Amino acid sequence: MPEWLQAYGVTHVALESTGVYWKPVYYMLEEGFTLLLINMQDLKRVPGRKTDVRDSEWLAQLLECGLLKSSFVPPPPIRELRDVTRYRMQQVRDRSQEVNRLCKVLEDAGMKLTSVMTDVMGASGRAMLHALVEGTTDPTVLADLARGRLRKKLPELRRALLGHFRPHHAFLIEQIFAKIDFLDETLDRLTAEIDRRLAPFEPILAALDTIPGVDRIGAINIVADTGADMSRFRRPAIAVRKTAGSTGALVHESCGPRCSPAVLTTMT
Description:
This protein has about 270 residues and is mainly alpha-helical. It is built from ten helices and six strands; from the N terminus they run αβαβααααααααββββ. About 15% of the residues are buried.
């Protein structure tokens, strides 16, 4: 494709940002052409352009007239960092889902453990759950596995551990534990890889970490999403969510786009 375009004297290429299908074409052409990745949301109101061929013709005309605004596509090192950080974020969500499944199994067995302890995956919770899987169902014995401040709640723990724990519950919890352990190992490897790739950005991360509400994970997400260079954006500002410490995004509704609640932080 690059040779074919060069044979016709093409120097600028506009691509429609459809899903992930634009990526291999963009990566193939980025070294030899000036590329513009176009968000078709900006052009969706143009009447009469209902086919891919007509869309292409329309994009070519707008490109020729200089009327297209390109979306931000980071350089390869930032793209790779973004892929790894987003994959890690998905693994964190998957781990949370497995913990929720574990809590549902306990509820199905009639055990209200989550009403007494805030983290069933803590040291005390793991000890009790492993004992349950191994066949111990006596509430007194299980409650006595509590550690630290949780020992002040032994009576509540004994009542919470009363239930009808059956063999299939033990099997399910064992499988969930195996998956959580696997995800923990995966997260450790991903974190190590992210830290390795972030070595050149440590001063920027330290500066971002001083922003109220932005921890290291939030700072990493900001660097991965913006490339740590705000000069390419018209306004030197980024949106940081109040929750989860991740970068803000638009919430599209039927009545039109609406910015999600965010704290706008000026990068100076």
